[in-house]
Q: What sequence folds into this?
């Protein structure tokens, strides 16, 4: 779930397009309880447009004693690509918006038996404090570079790697309905994707991603480093419209 934070980065799932007019799409299940969809289009040679959206969750019952969390978000981007022999290289920039919600329960003694969520300025010395309800809206800006290359021993298998810089900035953050300082943070996101051809234009994908907090512009406790994220999904690509 990315630690005690509202920020939930999307996984890298974008399949490669290599010619003008091609369209590709991918759907992904991010462990443990997340889904994501992506689409990429090449309107003209060496240019691409893409969009992604996702929903992450923790627990299915809002009043669970183990805490409850939901994050939904979307992003769009533009970029360019070139072919380097058998490899495919792209660079792109984009932006997105997300809504995150976390809820933790307290017992009769006032002790948190759910989630501890650090918030800027919370507690003495900026230490984490128990939070029963936290709601936030944040925006993201990013720049990324991606490379895809076929497996020399198995042409139907392709590998992808992405290096991405995310800026995460809260536009609104409330604790039990009370407005909080608006934090911001930079992340370096590294991802690896394996894509295996299944049938016709259908392929499966496996993705692993990790975020490193860098260039913090707020209390780092508000944005702890995200753990390793993994997901599996299907990709339909590439398709040329008639």
A:
């Amino acid at each position: 779930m990315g630690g005690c934070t509202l920020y939930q980065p999307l996984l890298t799932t974008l399949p490669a397009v290599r010619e003008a007019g091609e369209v590709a799409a991918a759907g992904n299940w991010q462990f443990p309880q997340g889904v994501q969809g992506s689409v990429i289009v090449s309107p003209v040679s060496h240019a691409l447009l893409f969009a992604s959206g996702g929903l992450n969750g923790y627990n299915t019952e809002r009043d669970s004693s183990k805490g409850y969390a939901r994050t939904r978000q979307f992003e769009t981007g533009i970029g360019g690509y070139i072919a380097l022999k058998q490899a495919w290289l792209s660079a792109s920039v984009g932006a997105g918006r997300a809504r995150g919600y976390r809820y933790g329960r307290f017992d009769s003694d006032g002790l948190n038996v759910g989630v501890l969520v650090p918030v800027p300025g919370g507690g003495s010395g900026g230490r984490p404090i128990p939070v029963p309800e936290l709601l936030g809206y944040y925006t993201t800006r990013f720049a990324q570079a991606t490379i895809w290359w076929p497996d020399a021993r198995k042409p139907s298998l392709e590998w992808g790697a992405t290096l991405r810089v995310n800026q995460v900035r809260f536009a609104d953050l409330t604790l039990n309905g009370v407005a909080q300082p608006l934090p911001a943070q930079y992340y370096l996101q590294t991802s690896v994707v394996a894509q295996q051809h299944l049938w016709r234009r259908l392929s499966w994908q496996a993705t692993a991603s990790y975020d490193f907090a860098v260039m913090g512009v707020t209390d780092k406790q508000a944005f702890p480093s995200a753990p390793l994220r993994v997901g599996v999904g299907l990709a339909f690509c590439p398709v040329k419209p008639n």
Observations:
- The radius of gyration is 20 Å.
- The CA atoms of residues 206 and 232 lie 5 Å apart.
- Residues 105-128 have pLDDT under 50 and may be disordered.
- The first strand starts at residue 23 and ends at 30.
